[in-house]
Structures are given as C-alpha cells and as structure tokens.
C-alpha cells in the first residue's frame, strides 16, 4: 500500500510540473529567418492547438495558422506557431496575431547581419506529434547573450508553493485534531470487540 501511495503522489506532481511547464511563459533568444502561413487541420494533436482565432468561423475544421521560423542563439532551429488565445486557456488574452506576424516579418534577418529577438512563448515543440509552441510576444535585443529573468514565473511559482504549503499545514492540523482521534477510537473499539469475542470462544471451549 505504501508503494501505491508514493506512486500516486509522484504521478500527481509530475502532472502538475508538466502542466506548469507547458502553460507558464518561456523565453528564447533567436534570429527570425522566415514567416509563413499554412493550412492546418488539427487531428489527434488538437489539444495542443488554440481554438479558432477570434472572429473566425469556429465551425470549420481547418484553418490558416501563422508560423515563425527561427534559429536560436545555440544554433538550433525552432519553429513557432502564432495563434490567438482569446479568452481561453492559457489566459494570455492574446488577440494580436496578425500584428505580431507583421512584427516578426519586419524583424527577419540573416546570419551575416543578425537581428536578435526575445521570443516569449508557451507550449512544447514535438516533431513527431507536429506540436509547436505558441508565440506571445517578440521584442528586439542587442545581442544573443541578453540576460532574461522570468519574474512572472518566479512570482507565480512562489505563490503556488506558499498556497500548497498553507493547505498542507491546515490539512495536517485537521487530520491530527479530527481524523486521527476517530481512527484511534475505531481501532480501540475493534480491539475491545476482538477481545470480547476471544473471551466468548474461551468460555465456550
């Protein structure tokens, strides 16, 4: 039973960590190499695509999606999608997809004359599932070695840890004050009843 308990606890926190890693904003330093638009028909990977953009016909199964091709400061290639999140999840309330695509196109550069940018995004890149991170914002920077401090993530994770700790402390106090005494009483009653039953069998024997 102890192994099952630890398995459930570990699985729960792995799911929480995966959810936070996917949802919280991340920052990449990159050079934009190209921008394009592609028709997408989400299938089994529909979970990793945003809902139809604000103002579009949501009854259509397929839609045009903007993409941004980049080369990261570690020389790896990364492709992002550029979709509105609207009022849905994650709550980035992004409605400026077209404007952001225009900014990305204007910031394209070559290896000979690079223009480095910080790309704020959420999500994962998975070639096998055709999953792309979604760009939230783009801002130019002076060079590839810019230092980025994720203040929002730090604040949110600190609040999450504080809330989790407060809930755990209150649950432990409630268990010690209300649940443990009841369980102890039940155990004592079971022991007493067992003793009486054993005594009856001894007298009959």
Description:
Strands 3-2-1-4-5 form a five-stranded antiparallel sheet. It has helices at 2-23, 97-106, 151-204; strands spanning 26-40, 63-72, 77-82, 116-122, 134-140. The two termini are 37 Å apart. It is 42% helix and 22% strand. The protein folds into two domains: 2-148, no CATH class; 149-205. With 205 residues, the chain is of the alpha+beta class. A hairpin with a 4-residue loop joins β2 (63-72) and β3 (77-82). The relative contact order is 0.14.
Brief overview:
Keywords: Membrane, Transmembrane, Transmembrane helix. The protein is of the alpha+beta class and 205 residues long.
Distance between the termini: 37 Å
Q: List the strand order in the largest sheet.
A: 3-2-1-4-5
Q: What's the helix count? A: 3
Q: Could you list the spans in which at least 5 consecutive residues all have pLDDT below 50?
A: none
- Number of separate strands: 5
Strand content: 15-25%
Question: Given the C-alpha coordinates, what overall shape results?
Answer: elongated
DSSP helix fraction: 40-55%
Give the class from helix and strand content and strand pairing: alpha+beta
CA radius of gyration is 27 Å
What's the number of structural domains?
A: 2
Largest sheet: 5 strands, antiparallel
Order of helices and strands: HEEEHEEH
Mean residue pLDDT: 87
